[in-house]
Structures are given as structure tokens and as C-alpha cells.
Amino acid sequence: MRNGILTIFLLLTSLLGAATVLGSDGISISGGVSSSVVEGTLTQVSKLPQAEGNSYPDCYFTAILEIHHIVSGKSVPKRLVVVLPGFFARKYAPEARLKQGDKVGATLSPFASMPDKVRQTQQADEIEEVDLEFYFAKDTVLLQHFTAPQTAIPFSQDKDSAVQAATAFQPVDLDARAARQSQIRKDLEEINGLLTKHGGDWNKWYDSLAGFRDQYKKQYEAKAQRWVGDSFFSAGYVENGYIYRPEFVESVINFKNYLSARNVDLILVRVPKKGEIVDDLFATAPADKVSNPHLLRMYKELLEADVEIINDIIPRAKEKRFEFPLMYWYQDFSEDHPAEGISWVIAEELAKRVSRYKSVKAAPRANLALKKTIATPGWLGLKWPTGNPKYDTSDFVRFAGIVDEKNRPLSLKQGEDSPILIVGSSFIAAPSLSKGATIPHYFAYITGIIPDLVHRNDADYMMPRSLAREGDSFLRNKVVCLFPFVPWSAYKALASLPIFDPNKSDKILLASYSNATLREIISLIENSEGRLTFSEDSANITPPENASDTGVKLRLTVPNSISDYSHFILSLEFASVDRTNISVQYSGQLDGVKRSDTQNNNEELFTFVTKPEKLIDIALITDKVLRSPIKIKKINFYGVKKPVYYQNKSDS
Question: Which of 124-128, 569-573, 576-580 has the highest mean pLDDT?
Fold first, then answer.
């Protein structure tokens, strides 16, 4: 073993003697990840954008490396794509000087095995050969000439085993599965017992509560408010009528099945409306404290479909509401986001559920602590309500934050290591993500386990598609996904997945439009004049400042070469950070996404079955409050002959 290490050391020493060392980006490669030391020639190099003034502070770039020989390590393909450091903190890395034709030596590792800080950082990528494998290049050196190979290591034909291993999921925890089924049965028994007590008819039960609803409505319209001890409440909005749609239940079942096929359980919790946990403080509560039976009806339908959802979050919140000065931001009648109190309650209930998993019990515990923090001007920067001398109305609200062992607010990220994943929109970022005060932060404090996070502002319903976009490797260490969803998410279906997996399917680039050529492919339809302009590097959509309509409709022409393929992919690459609804129609087929200003990727993929039709219509509607400009950087068309479909299953 020592002889092998010495040989590699001598080879690298001799290589460096005839080389210029370019630098290091500070990324370490785990000992469990396969790597290879290679020498080769850069045959194509992507152009880096200007670092100074760039909207992204950090950027890698790609290049095609034609390998001359493998010095040591695992077999790799003869031609591959390398990801190289470009600039960091808007300062160029030494590798940024590399150009086409340069001879280099480097240590390569599969790009899929790299940490999040690498894979989620912006890339300058002009490589159009989509069938080449991606590798991360470290310790890159500029060579004057190639060294003589000491051993003959063959080139590989298949993908590196480390990449394939990334799709191996966690084994099923049979004890946890049994506990999960027991919990679902218990919750169903409680709901069925209440339904039977009220005659077995949801509508009659709901109608019987009309007097209570009318009484509370008067308090809501009067904006009634009160301190109860040291806890402040107001008659916030409550949900009346049918609070969910059948298509929501169906879509959640599909989401559960997608995760189940990857040995990941789904646990839902509907974040209550702020009035639902105080209705009995402003009106005479029903005897069984159920103000809207249709909420239990939704729970029942989900539980009967083997979807776990916490069905008693409102009773738990009512039990705990006097332990906090604010459960919600009751001093602002229009603000629905959670305050400290309800965030703690939800975190506690989720923590109880995950205690069943062996991998959760075995996970290392973090050293975390509580630290009082204060709201700041801006989003949720509210001051104390009037009426209690203990709370100065000139002071911003204080709440508990979670800090790490260095007394810094706990940082949560979109990682792959934790057995627990928490997903959601801005409701999992309140009261303050930056100050360590959210449902995920409180969950981490209670359990001692730092969860991984997928946080998508204003895009709760996109969660199935967001996780599918991250790929199977993202879930390989997960056993449970926790989803605290906003109550109005139940008004419509969660986003459906593309009709096939655009990342796993072999695809051929057929046409690409960027810079000046964007003018050739984009045309306007339906009264969108004046909203589309072209700059040197993007197509720009700017909604009028005072218009109620913030959308634009574009039309693209499909390249003729698409007809040679049974399916195709439309790729829209953005240079903007925005919250935009995108709806794409092609020959009776509809695909769409909701972009979020907290997502990591800047490319959106849309999949279709090829038809004779040649036109694609795209509707883009930006957020009516933020009105963020939209910048389309590139449009690509890919042909797909054999689509790969998402793995799914209909049983638990």
C-alpha cells in the first residue's frame, strides 16, 4: 500500500516539475469518493462572464477534456466534461486563464459526488455534447508536455460506479413502517368516531355550525383583538366551506408514491389559518371544538390513501397558545405567516413523528442552544401590539433563535447528508430564516438533528417537481420528508412531474438560441407589445409598473429536426432571479412551472411528445407585487428517442 502511495507521489512530483500550478478552490474531496489523476488537452472551453459586477459572486466553468492517459486511480472516459473554478467573491481563480488547446493535469472526481457548495454554484456552460460525463477538476496544473505513463489504466465505457451508487436508497425501516401504519389507523379512528357522532354526514355537520360561523364572522369583520394574560390574539381569518379540492388529494398521493419508491416517507402538516386556533376566544366554540368538519374530511381522505398527515395540529396549538406572546402576527390582520409560537408547536409535533426511525435515532446530535433575537425592519419586522405594559410598542418583537456551538444563528441548507428533509415555501422561513427562528430550526433544536432543506418562496405546490429536479441522488440518504404546507395550497393540485425524466433520458441538442439569435426564435402574441426587449445577451420581459396584467405571451417555432424524435425537451435558461409562472403549450399538451427566487437552478425543462405542430406558446406571469424583470438567456431544443420515465409505485 505504501509503495502505491509513493508511486503516485513521485508521479505527481515529476508532473509538477514540468507544470504551472494554477491554484486551489478550497474544495476537499472525500476519501470515500473515487478519483483519478489524468493528463489531457482542453478541446473546448466555455467562456466565463465578467466577474466584476456579476449577479452571481461565485462561478465555475466547463470544458471538454480529451484525456491523453490516466496517471492513477479509477478508469474514466477518454472524453469528458470538467468543471473548473472560474471566480469566487467576483475574483478570478487561476484556472480562469485556461484556453482551448492547453495541456493540463488534474485530479478528477464524479461531479455528482461533489458537495452542495460545488454542485449548486452557478456554472458558465457552453458545452453542447450532452452525452459526455461530468467530472470535477481539482489540483489542475498547466503542462508543457505529457509525462510518460507508468501503468496502463484503460478508459471506461460506462458511468463511474460512484455515480451509479448515488441512486441506492436507504433500506426500508420495517419497525418504522409498522409504527407509521399504527399512527395512521389511530388518526383515522379518531376522525371516524367524530363523524359517526355527527350522523355520518359531513355537510349536515358543517351546516349545524352556521351560528358559530356567523358569530365569529362579526368578530373578524370588527378586527377584534385582546390580550389573554401575556399572549396577544386577534380574530384572524378562518377557512369556511370546502377548504380543499379532490385534485389536491390526488396529487399528494402521487407525491407520496414518488417518495415511497425511493424509500422515503412523507409526513404532511397543514399550517393552520391564524383564526383557526383562536376562534373559541372570540365566539362560543362547538362542544367538540371542530369549527370546520371539511378539514377533517381532507385528513380522512389522505389517511385512507396511506398519506400521513398530522390531524390534531389545531388542538395542539390551542393547548400551547398561552405559552407564547405571539402565535401568529396578530397585530397585523393581513399577515398570515407563522410567528414563534405556532412554529414551535409544528416543530414539536413533527419531532414526535420522526422519532420512530432507526436512522434518526442513530444520527449524530448537534450542539445547539437558544438565544433571544429581535425582528428587524422589513419582512415580518413588526413591533409589539398595544395593551400590555410588559411589551413596549416602540420595540420590535423578540423571539427565540437557534444558535450553533459558535453562538452563530444555525445555518440550514439544501444538503444531501441528513436523514430528514424539510420542504416548503416562506412559511418554513418565518419568523426569520437568517436568525435561526423557523419551523426547521426549532425542529433541529428539539431533535438535535440538523435537517436538510428545500426552501422555495411562493412555490409550495412545486415541491414534487422541485425534488424530482434534484434527482434520485438527492434522496439517497433520506428516510422521511416533512412538508408543512400553507393552507391555500389545498385549493389546487400540487405540480405534476414532466411526462418523462429529462435528466435521465438521453438527449441530443438540436437547436440553441442565445445572444443575438434569441430574436430569431421569439415572437410576441396577444397584446404583449412593449413588454419584450432584447439586449446583447438576453431577452428581457418587464411588466408595466401600474398594469394589473403582469404577463407576456411568447411564441417559438419548433426546429424541423424535432420530427426525427418521438419526444423532445424545451429548455429555458434564465439570467434573472424571479417568481414567475410559466405555462408552455404545444399541440394540446401543457407543461408548466412556478419559479422561485430561492431556487438553485436557472434552467427550466419542459417535456413533450412530438407532434406535427410547429408552434409553442409560452405564457410568463411575474409576481404582481415584486414585478421582477425576467431575463431569458438561452433557449435549447433537445430530441429524445427513448424517454426514461420516473420510478413510481402505488403501494407503501
Answer: 569-573
Provide the 3-class DSSP secondary structure of residue 467.
Answer: helix
500 by DSSP, 3-state: which? coil
Give the Cβ contact number of residue 69 at 10 Å. 17
Q: What is the pLDDT of residues 411-436, one digit of tens each?
A: 999 999 999 999 999 999 999 999 99
Quote the pLDDT of residue 25.
54
**β strands within 528-575, DSSP E:** 532-534, 539-541, 551-557, 567-574
Beta partners for residue 297, in sequence order: none
Residue-wise pLDDT for 575-622, tens only, equals 999 899 999 999 999 999 999 999 988 999 999 999 999 999 999 988
**By C-alpha distance, which of 229, 234, 278 is closest to 388?**
229
Q: For residue 86, give the nearest of 116, 45, 53, 114 by alpha carbon.
A: 45
Cell numbers standing for residue 62: 466547463
pLDDT mean across residues, the chain: 90
**What is the rounded CA–CA span in Å between residue 472 and residue 454?**
15
Alpha-carbon distance 641 to 566, whole Å?
5
**What are the E-state strand segments in 456-520?**
480-485, 508-514
- Residue whose C-alpha is closest to residue 499's, from 605, 629, 370: 605
Class of domain 508-640: mainly beta
**Calpha distance 72→66 (Å, rounded):** 16
Question: What's the grid cell of residue 211?
Answer: 351560528
Tally Cβ neighbours within 10 Å of residue 165. Answer: 15
Please write the tens of the pLDDT for every residue from 338-369. 999 999 999 999 999 999 999 999 999 999 99
What does DSSP assign to residue 156?
A: P
Is the predicted pLDDT of residue 15 greater than 50, yes or no?
no
Question: pTM for the whole thing?
Answer: 0.75
Contacts of 546 (CB under 8 A, 6+ apart): none
Average pLDDT over residues 482-502: 97
Task: Determine how many CB atoms are found less than 10 A away from the CB of residue 272.
Answer: 25
Would you kindly state where each structural domain of the chain is located, as residue ranges? 2-165, 174-491, 508-640
Phi, psi of 5 (to 5 degrees): -65, -40
Contact call for residues 206 and 294 (beta carbons, < 8 A): yes
Axis-axis angle for helices 340-354, 313-320 (nearest 10): 130
| φ, ψ (nearest 5 deg) of residue 201 | -125, 110
Q: What are the DSSP calls for 424-466, one per residue?
A: ESGGGSTTBTTTTBSHHHHHHHHHS---EEEE-TT-GGGHHHH
Burial class of residue 340, CB neighbours in 10 A (0-12, 13-18, 19+): buried
